Amino acid sequence: MESNRCLFCYDAPCTHACPTHIDIPKFIKKIATENLVGSARTILESNLLGATCARVCPVQELCEGACVLGAEHKPISIGRLQRYAMDDFYARKARPFVPAAATGKKVAVIGAGPAGVSCAGELTKRGHSVTLFDKRTLPGGLSTYGIISLREPIDIAVAEVEMLAGMGVQLKLGVELCKDIKMADLQAEFDAVFLSSGQGSTPDLGIPGEEHIIDGLFYIEQSKLSPNTMQIGRHVLVIGAGNTGIDCATIAKRLGADSVTIVYRRSEREMSAYRHEYEFAKNEGIEFRFHATPSSVVLENGKVTGLACGSFVLPADQIVKAIGQVRPSLAARLGLQTKRGFIDVNADFETSLPGVYAGGDCVRAAGSCSTVMAVQDGKLAAAGIHKKLMEASQNG
To answer: How far apart are CA 285 and CA 259, in angstroms?
Structure first.
């Protein structure tokens, strides 16, 4: 049994490597003693999106990469064990926590992605009344719409939000800030506001024929919401060598494309995809073309036939771009201070607007964006919000 291989290290390196600091030896020990509910609760104490993170975290770079058995032996399969405990927990329809006594304070959370869900849950645990808003028809944000089903099925992300609803979080879908509801109205109704709006859309390449290129995030969303009617080319090119690019290429390959090639303007060493994702893609039969900078889409009779990259043309009948996302526009609309285009926050995740906080990808001016980092932002922001609300109560 995999859990019995764990050495249950004191001051375990794997726990330090986890951005949410899950007590990994403790949850594995509880699996080994067949206390699966206790194992799941240990995970949820630190990470309310334990089921999602068990699937999408780059464990090779984090907890498993720090495992002391990894030096001479095979590291413990921490991600797989976490998934085992969390899947059992949801199958039992168990309730993770009983919220603390009501504080009488109300908090609005804008965006039901990883940071927002984490913040909403942590505030609810502390006894605050939380309303979670999202502009989409399904909650979960990136977990629902932007991570391929191979890694994160929609029902897992939705179940995590439903768990919070069972704890008392009010969910309002189809409501967009600055369109359906104004910040001034939120400030009048709630004692604090947390923004977790993520990043913006995929930027333009600025090349002729770009209107015939498919947005990578839309490509992933289609594969999750309508895979049976999704149009897949025979020869697919994906522009961009990050993890999203690899996800798009994987979709094309698994849904029937004859050939899939990732096109990247820099070298293999400079690509932003994790090394294990790169090896995974190659094992899928996905090809890579480095030092190729797109210059125009080649068309014949209005249909895509290739991608020109300087002096050569790569044949294709479908082109997808996955070249990152633009800076969030919400900051400008709300008049918030920014840092390198991202919302600027202090140590408690409070923005330049008092009582308004932010976390997740919309504040990630430095470092990489990831689900687990967004979860940790939400957790830390909840602590900062709670501290401020309790200080206000004590001061009358």
So the answer is: 8
